[in-house]
Specification:
The chain is mainly β and about 500 residues long. It contains six helices and 21 strands. It has two domains: about 130 residues, no CATH class; about 350 residues, paralog of FGE (formylglycine-generating enzyme) (Alpha-Beta Complex), CATH 3.90.1580. The N terminus is likely disordered.
């Protein structure tokens, strides 16, 4: 843990190691002001790059926040060079043979990923140096600025054909080839032309978008990165501690009129008792001036989020929401659909209830999922080992974890007359509005009924509503749900994706 240094008006973010799979980023990045570089270490477990089967790899999305203590003390996004060759990965004084650094066109961050193919295993500590750019909105930079390097594990979902829907006939809102019960093949032709009217993919107008879906709408055919795990409380603490007081106030008062960041013990979410993200004694903010410092004792547990909180986090971190089409692609991959299948590819399901500890103590079983537990979500990253298969680990075709159970996955999509056709692959820009909300054109602005959002994958107590909501192709919430509107984040989580 990085020690927190609290100044009168300027503070460092609290570093919380992302424990889902032991991602560790060095707590003290080194800034070279003359070379305009930032150097830090990184390591993580259970990494891969394979050329058969899913033919994909994992990576860490790394981005930087910056603070100048002589200005308004706000944290801003630090852009980096989009040119991969401007960055370096070293180990023991030589060029790394384990990882490389991939720049992205918008300079929002980089992907650190494995070198080679058919390699599996842990990534030991590597030294990464990133080249910074001069683009830093709203602050004047200095040689003594604070920096925070943040990261999250991602999985690459390659470009390619896949099926929407699983062919079942008992759920009329299920994706299908128009009015039939046949799964719909999404290929390059459909992506390039656009999916079009609801008649092409559902059985009725209430089940699809009110406007034809154009070619710019992400159907899942094109490649994208997806977070390997759900957004954790540790990551949300980092996010909250980077906001201004006024932005924090909007996010806390949405849960109660007196819930302000200048009060000890105020919570961010309405998580289960004892597992909240909150302001500990002595870390409250100063009204309209100094933001509060949030804390969680369970950084490894996924965070409950409303749609606005989810999209705020994604915009801040340079990611975007996934569509429900991309959800099915990320789960099913290139395999033929199985009727009523869960994200791990079959119809087996077993409870993984109820470990809140920092260790994985549950027993490996086919169809492992946290779905029969009314005590809340549990740690991301189930008991996968080199000897477990996809079903025993509860993993999707591409190795993405907990897409079924734990917390709902909030996606763009659904029906009931809402128009979400303007949603594109545009990623977040790292900047939020004065209320701490996402400001990306085309993103649904709020959750709730008829909002252009849909909840997929079920949650930790799906037994109460039926196991069907955990299934890949289930669209029980095609009309949206009030549960993910402002101030109602119970059982809703999510993760981000990134196009590049």
């Amino acid at each position: 843990m990085k020690q927190l240094y609290l100044f009168i008006t300027c503070f460092l973010l609290s570093f919380v190691q992302a424990k889902a799979n032991n991602l560790a980023i060095g707590a003290s990045p080194i800034y070279n002001s003359s070379a305009q570089t930032l150097t830090f270490t990184i390591s993580w477990d259970n990494s891969w790059s394979i050329s058969s089967g899913p033919s994909n790899w994992d990576a860490v999305w790394v981005f930087i926040k910056r603070q100048n203590c002589s200005g308004n003390n706000n944290w801003v996004h630090q852009f980096v060079s989009p040119t991969s060759g401007d960055h370096s990965a070293m180990s023991g004084g030589s060029a790394s043979t384990l990882v490389s650094v991939d720049g992205v066109t918008d300079g929002m961050g980089v992907f650190v990923k494995r070198i080679g193919t058919n390699v599996i295993g842990n990534v030991s500590s590597q030294t990464i140096t990133l080249k910074l750019t001069s683009t830093n909105p709203s602050i004047t930079t200095s040689a003594t600025d604070n920096f925070e390097v943040l990261g999250m594990e991602m999985v690459y979902v390659p470009q390619g054909n896949f099926y929407l829907g699983d062919g079942r006939s008992t759920n009329t809102s299920n994706f299908s080839a128009g009015n039939t019960t046949q799964p719909l093949l999404i290929n390059a032709s459909i992506q390039n032309a656009g999916l079009g009217s609801y008649t092409n993919y559902t059985s009725g107008p209430q089940y699809g978008c009110s406007v034809s879906l154009p070619s710019i709408f992400p159907l899942g055919y094109n490649g994208f990165y997806c977070m390997k795990y759900e957004i954790s409380q540790g990551l949300v603490v980092e996010f909250l501690n980077a906001l201004t007081y006024d932005q924090q106030a909007v996010k806390t008062t949405a849960r109660g009129a007196s819930n302000l960041p200048n009060v000890d013990g105020v919570y961010f979410n309405n998580n289960w008792a004892g597992f909240q993200t909150y302001i500990p004694t002595g870390n409250k903010g100063t009204y309209n001036t100094v933001p509060a410092k949030f804390y969680t004792a369970y950084p490894h547990i996924p965070e409950n989020l409303s749609w606005q909180d989810l999209t705020s986090f994604l915009d801040w971190s340079g990611l975007r929401p996934m569509t429900e089409f991309e959800f099915e692609k990320a789960c099913r991959g290139t395999l033929p659909p199985v009727a009523y299948e869960y994200p791990w590819g079959n119809t087996s399901i077993n409870s993984a209830c109820c470990d809140y500890s920092t260790t994985r103590t549950w027993t490996i079983a086919e169809g492992l999922s946290n779905f029969n537990n009314n005590n809340g979500p549990i740690r991301s990253g189930f008991a996968a080992t080199s000897g477990t298969n996809r079903s025993q680990a509860g993993a999707t075709y591409y190795g993405i974890m907990e897409m079924g159970g734990n917390l709902f996955e909030q996606c763009v999509g659904g029906g009931n007359g809402y128009n979400y056709s303007a949603f594109t692959i545009t990623n977040g820009n790292g900047v939020l509005n004065t209320n701490g909300l996402a400001d990306v054109t085309g993103w649904p602005s709020n959750g709730g009924v008829n909002s252009g959002t849909i909840m997929k994958g079920g949650y930790h107590y799906s037994q109460s509503t039926g196991y069907n909501i955990i299934q890949v192709s289930d669209r029980s919430f095609f009309g949206g749900s009030d549960n993910n509107s402002v101030g109602k984040d119970n059982a809703n989580g999510g993760r981000g994706v990134r196009s590049f």
